[in-house]
Structure formats: C-alpha cells, structure tokens
Design brief:
With about 230 residues, the protein is an alpha+beta fold. The protein has helices at about 1-10, 90-100, 190-195, 205-225, and strands spanning about 15, 25, 35, 40-50, 105-110, 120, 135, 145-155, 170, 175, 200.
Length: about 230
C-alpha cells in the first residue's frame, strides 16, 4: 500500500500557485509610450512546456536589467526587466509566434478541475492572482520542473486567450517546480518567486500606422539613393 501511495504522488497532477504579486504587469497601451502598473485592465494566462523546449519569444526580449528603484523602471515609465514588449515596435507578428508554439510543445495552462484555460483578471497595481490557489495543472506531473511564460492582453475584448488584434505582452521564460499536493509548500510558490519578470502589454499598430511606417521607410530609402 505504501508503494502504491508513493507511486500516486509521483505520477499525479502537479500543483502550483498562479500568482505574480504586485508590479508584474504594466499597461503600455492606454497611453502610447507610457507604462503604468496595470489597473485591472488586462487578463493574464500562461504557456507551459517541458524544460528546454524551444521558445521563439525569447528572440525579441529586451535587454534591460533591474533599474535603480527596484521596480524594473528607470528614469522613464517603461519596464526594463527583459520584457518582450520592451523595444519591440509591433507585437502583431508575435501573436503568430505564440500560435506556432502551441503546436510545438507548448500548451495553455488549464485547471485540472475546470478543464478551461486559466485566464484571470489582473488585479490592481499590476498584480495577478488566481482565485483557487494552489491549483492542479492539467497534464502536468507532480514534483516536476516546467518552463513557463506568463502572457497578458487587453481585457476589454473579453477574449479568453489573446488574438492578433489585441494589445498583448509576455514575460521571460522561467522554471516552476510543481508540488505533489495542495498542502505541499512547493505548490505555494508564486510566479514572482520562481523568476518571472515584470513585463508590459503593448498595442498592435493600426494597419494605417503600419502603412505610413512602410511609406516613410521607402521615402528615406529613395532620398538616400538620390543623394548617392
């Protein structure tokens, strides 16, 4: 019987706490160029995969480090803690990247009990907290390590996962170890304690904006050719 119980603990669903603490998500879409701690206007979910799974989103991460005020914010209002939206002109193409990740080892985090994607409304001051922590992560194994990326998007649409037309953003990838039960102290670890950084939710440029940008680039190229 002891062997059977031990085997169940080792191969049961993994438990985790979906909690990012204060100051983890920044609204960079309400006012262009200005980042504020998201005031309950974004939804947050997460992607997860086996550790070492290829993560194309890391290719567009910013390169900043912690700033002097300890909140990932320097002299300007934009977070700088290796956030994918920091310095990225458009997040539109990255929505397609997330779509491709779902067919290459990554999955949206789902609650074992409800079976739906775990998408939560952002709390005040850039915090996000799931209401039924700790939770059982559907498809995971207890006591195992997984790579996780938090993803946030504009909540106004009511979308359960981000789509290409919405402002969105994502965190750095980090490793989370699942607990063996709801009472396992490992299962109460916050995302922020496991290494998730602050990140911003940036707008997708309007088609007209993209068109003007392309036209401006073409004009500069023609001017250079004329000068030469």
């Amino acid at each position: 019987m002891l062997v059977a119980v031990g085997g169940f603990s080792a191969f049961g669903q993994g438990w985790m706490t979906f909690d990012g603490a204060v100051g983890r998500v920044y609204d960079e879409f309400t006012t262009a160029g200005v980042g504020i701690r998201a005031p309950s206007d974004v939804n947050v979910a997460f992607l997860w995969a086996a550790t070492g799974t290829a993560d194309p989103l890391t290719l567009v991460n910013g390169t900043g480090g912690p700033s002097s005020d300890g909140q990932g914010r320097g002299g300007n209002a934009t977070p700088t803690l290796q956030v994918a939206t920091n310095g990225v002109a458009s997040v539109a193409s990255q929505w397609g990247t997330i779509t491709s990740m779902l067919s290459s080892g990554w999955s949206w985090g789902k609650d074992q009990n409800a079976g739906n994607v775990i998408a939560i409304a952002n709390g005040t001051s850039g915090a996000y907290v799931y209401g039924s922590n700790p939770l059982e992560l559907l498809g995971s194994t207890a006591g195992a390590s997984y790579e996780i990326i938090a993803v946030a998007w504009d909540a106004a649409s009511g979308a359960t996962v981000p789509v290409s037309s919405l402002a969105m953003g994502w965190s750095n990838p980090f490793v989370y170890i699942t607990g063996t039960s709801a009472g396992d102290p490992v299962a109460t670890t916050f995302f922020s304690q496991s290494g998730v950084n602050q990140f911003g939710v940036a707008s997708v440029p309007e088609p007209t904006t993209l068109a003007f940008g392309a036209l401006g680039g073409l004009s500069l190229l023609l001017m250079r050719r004329k000068k030469s």
